[in-house]
Design goal:
There is one protein chain. This protein is an all-alpha fold and about 300 residues long. It is built from nine helices and no strands. The longest helix has about 55 residues. It is about 85% helix and about 0% strand.
């Protein structure tokens, strides 16, 4: 063997020894294969004592390294099998968290290292299948979600339209209040229209509900004032009826005036359910008593 080849073999023995003595580190199959390849290229073996000694020493270290690569193979295989198991068990209840988990598993896969090609290829096929199944499921989920969002958006827009129409008509506050409650129950049963539209839709619906309750509040406040005014007017008519009854005069003019009191009563309008019946009973009793006295007087 020439001197150059001999020196290269000495270097390779030194390299093999260095790797073999680093017990805390693993050695890849590629490093082992590279050493073998370089040894073969260093020149043919001869029977010299020094050559035989180098060859034996090299093989000694290579045996140690082969054992280490076997440990690497077992370690890598176990690590990747664990990753595959986790990938298959990733929950799809929250795709944001699940996607982050799948990305984390991919990083762990890259850092796990390599064993022999056949084992690695088989493990990768299993891991890839788990990833593909997950991402296909995710794609289908969001496709269905988009359709669901579109349907929910359409239904909520219809509810907003109904609420707007009810406010525009505003004919019976009791009926419209029941309608607004019905629309709210329907709204609750509809799923989300997606973050792009949900808040905007809710604001529009809420605006119509607030408008209704504002108008109703103002309406009843106004009605309360109206009822109070009507009640006061009817109290005055009752006072007049009392005067006519107290006078007990039955001239044509007096009888016509009492009769006109009834017309005025009707013209005033309802004073509200809380007082209307009581006022009417008192007024009607006075007028009837007047006519009763008139009939007695004319006998």
């Amino acid at each position: 063997m020439n001197e150059k080849g001999f020196d290269l073999k000495k270097e390779l023995v030194a390299k093999a020894k260095e790797l073999a003595e680093k017990l805390e580190e693993t050695v890849s199959y590629q490093e082992l294969a590279d050493l073998r390849k370089k040894w073969k290229r260093s020149g043919s073996d001869d029977e010299s004592f020094f050559e035989k000694e180098l060859s034996d020493e090299f093989e000694k270290y290579m045996a140690i390294l082969s054992a280490k690569t076997g440990e690497v193979k077992t370690s890598v295989k176990a690590a990747k099998e664990a990753i595959i198991k986790e990938a298959k068990e990733v929950s799809t209840k929250n795709y944001k968290e699940a996607t982050a988990k799948m990305n984390e598993l991919m990083e762990r896969w890259k850092q796990a290292g390599r064993s022999d090609k056949e084992t690695d290829d088989d493990l990768w096929a299993q891991f890839k299948a788990a990833r593909d199944e997950f991402f296909e499921g995710k794609k289908a989920y969001f496709a269905n979600l988009s359709e669901s969002f579109a349907k929910n958006k359409e239904e909520k827009e219809a509810i907003i339209e109904e609420a707007t129409k009810a406010n525009a008509e505003m004919t019976n506050y009791k009926q419209i209040a029941a309608k607004m409650d019905e629309l709210m129950e329907s709204w609750k049963k509809i799923g989300s229209a997606g973050k792009e539209f949900e808040e905007e839709l809710w604001n529009k619906f809420s605006e119509q509900r607030k408008l209704f309750y504002k108008n109703r509040k103002e309406y009843y406040a106004q009605m309360k004032e109206t009822f109070a005014t009507r009640a006061a007017a009817k109290e005055e008519l009752i006072a007049e009826a009392k005067k006519h009854l107290a006078r007990s005069e039955f001239s044509e003019e007096e009888v016509a005036a009492v009769k006109e009191l009834r017309n005025k009563w009707k013209a005033v309008g309802n004073a509200g359910k809380d007082v209307e019946e009581g006022l009417w009973n008192e007024f009607n009793g006075l007028v009837n008593k007047y006519y009763e006295n008139m009939r007695f007087y004319k006998k």
